[in-house]
Amino acid sequence: MPEEKLLEVKNLTISFHTFAGDVSAVRNVDFDLRPGEVIAIVGESGSGKSVSTQAILGLTPIPPGEIKSGEILFKGENLLACSAKRLSEVSGSRISMIFQDPMTSLNPTMKVGNQIREILHQHARMTRGQSAERAMELMNLVGIPEPKVRLGQYPHEFSGGMRQRAMIAMAMANRPEVLIADEPTTALDVTIQSQIFRLLRELQRDFHTAIILITHDLGVVAGMADRIVVMYAGKVMEEGTTDQVYYRPHHPYTAGLLQAVPSLADDARKKLRTIEGTPPFLLHVPAGCPFAERCEYSMRICKEKEPPYFHPEAGNRVFCWLYDDGASAQRARFDAREVAQ
Amino acid sequence: MKEKILELRHLQKHFHLSRGRILKAVEDIDLDIFEGETFGLVGESGCGKSTLGRTIKGIYEPTAGQIVYQGKDTAHMDAQERKLYRRDLQIIFQDPYSSLNPRMTVKELIAEGLEIHGLGTRKEQEERVFETLKLVGLSPEYVTRFAHEFSGGQRQRLAIARALAVRPRFIVCDEPISALDVSIQGQIVNLIKDLQRELGLTYLFIAHDLSMVKYISDRVGVMYLGRLVEVADKAELFANPQHPYTQALLSSIPIPNPNIERERKEIPIEGEIPSPLERIPGCSFKTRCPFAVAKCDTMAYELRDVGNRHFVMCTKFQ
Which of A25, A193, A323, B68 could form a disulfide with A310 if both were Cys (CB 3.0 to 4.6 A apart)? Predict the structure, then answer.
């Protein structure tokens, strides 16, 4: 790669110990992020998208969680091996995170202004006057009107959209190089969702902040992401550029997800194409590909042996046996499928 | 033209809060729903769409106005008629994790309505439970299980079975797919559509996901702060939205197609839905509307026919 990598997640495996046994939430996951880049990690509930990104900031609850293997390199430094002190220096200043539900991530008993200033004081030497001024700047940056009044209010006095803006202000307080946004708009209405995405795009452009956007909805990231990582049952199923994933999905799961959402142009007389069945239960990890049970194109090997990553085109990898030379007939069936749009 | 199955006349639902405050969740809704159609109701959170659905089902007593079912005002029904109305009209809720009693078996959950309405002998009820389970695509062998043993999609199938058991004619679907994963949503929407075709059901489909509403509905109504601001046939509404709020709402839907999405022209509306506790005179959207003018302060609360079965509440047409 010509450009250096800012963040690399390598071979990450995380399990959770439960009374029923070990749940293998994330299995040998790799992905990386370059400076200023926006990647989207897309997956349904239980796909491991949140678990793998929480590990970046050391937010995996241990126990019951256990990081079984892997490295998370931030500018070459392994965050999984560094001291708690070092990790807390990095998190919140170099890498920060916003969550789905801003009400549970803000402190309800503290004024919003004080919460923002707390972060500033934690990571930089500042006088009270300086931090107050910077807090005002941040409120303006994220488009909160009447910042002076707002800084003196409590989170419950904010609407959902405003709370998420306040969260973003806190996340941007120390000009991070990486912003992880875990379903930032799922709890919000569409008009507010588009305001928040517009804001994130502006921040990425103006500050060259790299963003990891985690979402369950492929529909929302088309205009936002440079690359997309599709996860299913703890595994990366496919990774590629946004155009490639939308226009030429190589994994049957990605193709199924794209067809399962009706687009505004769709004909309602047609039946929605769905993916039958449900995701596997990760107490018992299936031997082969975890999607094999639901896959229209599955072959015998799919249920017996995990595929390696194939590279059907530059910049893409896909976890699927269809790209093995021995599967050309089945592959031809997949390529000839009826594509909506 | 099909028969009207449900008519709402100036329907209102206010909630009295502490310190004398009044939450006007639903204000003056006038709407006809026809037999066999799916009426999609969209709007952002707090617009009153769920309250409207619940008021129709009878969970809330309306503050004012009428609900007319098959030509009969529900307020003037006798006990017998009211019971029949409650049987004919069922509801499916958003969250199948909280809408199913965790202590009841599948059989008890589905048979509950049959018992309440005294439908059939025990034996017949049992058969009806099996029948309904098959109808929603679940195996009859599940009857002794509890809700927690099922996935989200299966639970929503159970909730649908529960509604269907008493052979209703009208179902209020209150965001039935929003809590489900994308790959499961399609399964449930297909099921809801198939059941309509097989059983001739009428739906009030409440949702905030506009692409799904477009897919499933025949007609669509857009709600804002307790009022319907636009009603039209689906194709007409999506092709030719007239109310500035509908236009903004439609333009803010992200499109799952990168080239089109990057070019998408948005009509940005600033700010958020104001508190329903403080009502302003005139059009309630004027605080966010890019086209607001002085006469919006005195807008008449009337859906005007702009042709092609398309109704809009906006000063543009007054």
Answer: A323
Nearest to B231 by CA among B303, B317, B307, B315: B303
Interval A158-192: pLDDT, tens = 888 888 889 999 989 888 999 999 988 887 788 88
A194–B266 C-beta distance less than 8 A: yes
pLDDT in tens, B254-299: 888 888 888 888 887 777 777 778 778 899 999 889 898 999 999 9
The two most distant CA atoms of chain B are separated, in Å, by 67
Q: What angle do CA B144, B110, B178 make, to 5 degrees?
A: 105
Q: What chain B residue is nearest to A281 in terms of C-alpha separation?
A: B151
CA distance A159 to chain B (A): 8
Query: Could you tell me if B231 and B31 are in contact, meaning their C-beta atoms sit under 8 angstroms apart?
Result: yes
Contact B261 A261 (CB under 8 A): no
Identify from A194, A216, A224 which residue to disrupt to test chain B contact, counting B C-beta atoms within 10 A and taking the largest count: A194
Are B257 and A340 within 8 A, CB to CB?
Answer: no
A271 touches chain B (CB under 8 A): yes
CA angle, A151 then A157 then A158, to 5°? 75
Within 8 A by CB and 6+ apart from B165, the residues are B110, B111, B113, B114, B128, B129, B132
Q: How far is A328 from chain B (nearest CA, A)?
A: 27
pTM of the model: 0.85
Are A260 and B252 a contacting pair at CB < 8 A? no
- B211 closest CB neighbour out of A159, A262, A274: A262
- The beta-carbon neighbor of B186 closest among A45, A162, A272 is A272
**Is the separation of the CB atoms in A340 and A259 below 8 Å?**
yes
SS3 B17: coil
Q: What is the pLDDT of residue B78?
A: 93
Number of CB atoms found within 10 A of residue B16's CB: 9
